[in-house]
Amino acid sequence: MTATTRIVEIRRNVLKANDAIARELRERFERACVCVVSMVSSPGSGKTAFLEKTLTMLRLRGLRVAALVGDLATDNDAARLARSGALVKQIVTGTTCHLDALMVRKALEDWPLDELDFLFIENVGNLVCPASYDLGERARIVLLSVTEGEDKPLKYPSIFKSADLAVITKMDLAEAVEFDADAALRGIDTVRPGMEIRMVSAKRGDNMASFADWVEKLGSARSAG
Amino acid sequence: MTATTRIVEIRRNVLKANDAIARELRERFERACVCVVSMVSSPGSGKTAFLEKTLTMLRLRGLRVAALVGDLATDNDAARLARSGALVKQIVTGTTCHLDALMVRKALEDWPLDELDFLFIENVGNLVCPASYDLGERARIVLLSVTEGEDKPLKYPSIFKSADLAVITKMDLAEAVEFDADAALRGIDTVRPGMEIRMVSAKRGDNMASFADWVEKLGSARSAG
Questions:
Q1: CB-based contact (8 Å) between A17 and chain B?
Q2: CA A97, chain centre distance (Å)
Q3: Does B9 touch chain A (CB under 8 A)?
Q4: Mind telling me how many Å the CA of A36 is from chain B's nearest CA?
Q5: What residue numbers bound the domain in which B184 lies?
Q6: Do B7 and A3 touch (CB under 8 A)?
Q7: DSSP summary character for residue A86
Q8: What is the CATH classification number for the domain harbouring B210?
Q9: Chain B contact for A1, CB < 8 A?
């Protein structure tokens, strides 16, 4: 067995172990009636600003929200998100390039899940590795900022394929960077035909209400499920 | 042995194997008198635009340049870089989140290295995983665009620690995103004290000549070495 085959084999086992914990988490989330949404993107695509706005809006709608946020180092994001008034916890991953289900389970050990309506999980900024790790979430959102270039869906197809909604962020900068929305939408539709898309600006507020509606609808799906 | 210890063990072996190939590459590059520079950054931080401009400038200075460019999918970047007139090859990594020394060795199999002065290697857009993989390069450049936020060095310290030069890109957008240069410079200096930094705009040309000078100086270091 070569080193590469061994790695593939071990990686498969790690993913299998992760999937088992994720399944267990998913059942726990269902029992607690909390709708869990994860967010993945490149570093610096505006996940935290977007999430801060989302938490604030959902709280104004009377919903009980919380967030877990992953980073290699610092608790900057947790501090920013806590400004929304939501319950927030930072997961520091050290050198690990993604969150896994075990990290999520550990972080939630002392959390009163049944007192929450929505839990958001902001992954480490990485457009590749988080694609493979199920976190037990009901939906995964992939964010792409207008400054990153329209071709990212074609260049990082796995993560777009693994997501349920694409959010194009920083629309306030679209003109400054000559963002070609048609090309970006075409790219997303090529790798994940029919995926829903929101084009937002957390800074100006564009389409944030529409996103909050999407989240609320996702949450209410549980009562029907 | 738990799955995690096994993974750590195997990962160590993979890195050891990578290091051996990287050492071999480094010797080959030295023998061929080609100066190899790698570039790492988040997806969409402007590596390709920056590299295209760099290749064009160095060619105008009479230098023989080439580039390898890594992506999970598409050969968009190779097509863009080829406009500079330089020799360019795309490495498509599939699901692998970084380049490794073996990929570089394979890509260079049929290349006349001794006819080159400089070879650039543009890594997959990922601010985490490429940090661990030596590619036999003489210097590694980490790029950070002003749109990503000033805190990235603190949040992704490993990759900044592994680099020899930091380049802050898209300075033409600094005002639009209210980029706090002092905070970014402080962050870089915290994780990698004394590292040289260039603040550039490939679009407007700011500081591109200064960067080309840095590259030339790096190349001439070999005759002294």
A1: yes
A2: 14
A3: no
A4: 25
A5: 16-224
A6: no
A7: S
A8: 3.40.50.300
A9: no
User: Does the CA dihedral B180-A82-B157-A6 come out positive or negative?
Assistant: negative
Among all residues of chain A, which has the CA nearest to that of B6? A10
Nearest to A53 by CA among A225, A222, A218, A204: A204
- CB contact under 8 Å between A6 and B3, yes or no, is no
- B158 contacts in chain A (CB < 8 Å): 72, 95
CB-based contact B169:B202 (threshold 8 Å): yes
Residue from B2, A171, B163 nearest B153 by CA: B163
Nearest alpha carbon to residue B120 among B173, B63, B72: B63
Q: Which residue of B has its CA nearest to A125?
A: B127
Tell me whether residue A108 is in a domain: yes
The shortest C-alpha distance from A127 to chain B (Å) reads 7
Say if B2 falls within a structural domain. Answer: no
CB contact under 8 A, A156 and B125: yes
Whether B164 maps to a domain, the answer reads: yes
* Of A23, A21, A85, the residue nearest A59 (C-alpha): A85
Angle at B88 between CA B84 and CA B92, to 5 degrees: 130
A8 at B interface, C-beta within 8 A: no
Q: Is A6 on the interface with B (CB under 8 A)?
A: yes
User: How many domains does the structure of chain A reveal?
Assistant: 1
pTM as predicted: 0.95
Q: Which two tokens stand for residue B203?
A: 């679009």
Q: Let me know if residue A6 belongs to a domain.
A: no
Encode chain A (225 residues) as per-residue pLDDT tens digits. Answer: 566 677 777 888 889 999 999 999 999 999 999 999 999 999 999 999 999 999 999 999 999 999 999 999 999 999 999 999 999 999 999 999 999 999 999 999 999 999 999 999 999 999 999 999 999 999 999 999 999 999 999 999 999 999 999 999 999 999 999 999 999 999 999 999 999 999 999 999 999 999 999 999 999 986 544
